[in-house]
Amino acid sequence: MKTFYLFIPLVITTAVLSQNNPPRVVDNVDLQKYAGTWYEVARLPNRFQTQCAGDVSATYTLLDNGQIKVVNRCRLESGEFTEAVGRARRAGKNEPNSKLKVRFAPAFLSWLPFVWGDYWIIELDPEYRYAVVGDPSRRYLWILAREPEMDDAILEGIIERTSEQGYDVKELVRTKHWPG
After folding, report:
1. How crowded is residue 160: how many other Cβ atoms within 10 Å of its Cβ?
2. How far is CA 17 from the centre of its chain?
3. Domain spans of the chain?
4. Which residue in 20, 71, 88, 110 is a FRET match for 104, CA 20 to 30 A apart?
5. pLDDT tens for each residue of the chain, 180 residues long
6. How many helices (H) and strands (E) would you count in the chain?
7. ∠35-36-39 over CA atoms, to 5°?
8. Alpha-carbon span 118 to 101, nearest angstrom
9. Among 63, 105, 67, residue whose Cα is nearest residue 88
10. 71, 68, 39: which is closest to 56 by C-alpha?
11. Which residues, listed in sequence order, are joined to residue 69 by a DSSP beta bridge?
12. What does the buried/exposed string (b/e) look like for 77-105 if buried means 16 or more CB atoms within 10 Å of the residue's CB?
C-alpha cells in the first residue's frame, strides 16, 4: 500500500511537468510531402495496437476540406490485416501544422473533444524519409519511415533525441515487417 501512495505524487508530478514543458514540435510540415504511406519502425506500447503482430503502416491522404484521411493498417497474429480509418485536423488555428488532432471514432461523434487524440510531429527528416510522432503526455510515440527498415545509426540518433525530449525510450518496441 505504501508503494501506491508513493506512486501518486510521481504521476501528478509527471503530468504537471509534461503540461509545463511539452515536447518540441517541428516548425512547419509540408503536408503534400507528408502525405503517403509511412511504415512504423518502433513505438511505445499502447492499448490500441496490442493486436498488431507487425507490418504496421499509416497512409495519409489530404482532403479538400483541409483534413487528412488516416488509414492505419497492421498484420494480426493470424496473418490477416486489419485497418482503422480516421481523420486528422490541425489542433488549432494558432498552432503549427505539426500539431494535429486525430480521431478514429465514427464521424457523428467528432463533436466530442475526447475522441480526438494529439498527434504531434516532433521530428521530421528534411527529405521526409522519417518522422517521429508523439503526444504532450509522452505516453505515445511512433517512429515512422518511408521504408519498413531503417538504418540502425539513424534510428539510434532518433532514439537519443527523443529521449532528450523526455520520452521513455527504454520501453520502445521495434516493429516486425515481413518480406512481400
Report:
1. 10
2. 20
3. 23-174
4. 20
5. 443 333 343 343 344 444 579 999 999 999 999 999 999 999 999 999 999 999 999 999 999 999 999 999 999 999 999 999 999 999 999 999 999 999 988 788 878 877 799 999 999 999 999 999 999 999 999 999 999 999 999 999 999 999 999 999 999 999 999 886
6. 3, 9
7. 120
8. 5
9. 67
10. 39
11. 61, 87
12. eeeeeeeeebbbbbbeeeebbbbbbbbee
Q: Which three cell numbers stand for residue 135?
A: 503526444
pTM: 0.86
Q: Residues with Cβ < 8 Å from 144, sequence gap 6 or more? A: 38, 39, 40, 41, 58, 130, 131, 132, 133
| Amino acid symbol at 108 | F
Q: Residue 143 is placed in which grid cell?
A: 517512429
In single-letter form, the type of residue at position 41 comes to V
- Nearest alpha-carbon partner for 77 in 57, 56, 49, 52: 52
Domain range 23-174, CATH architecture:
Beta Barrel (2.40)
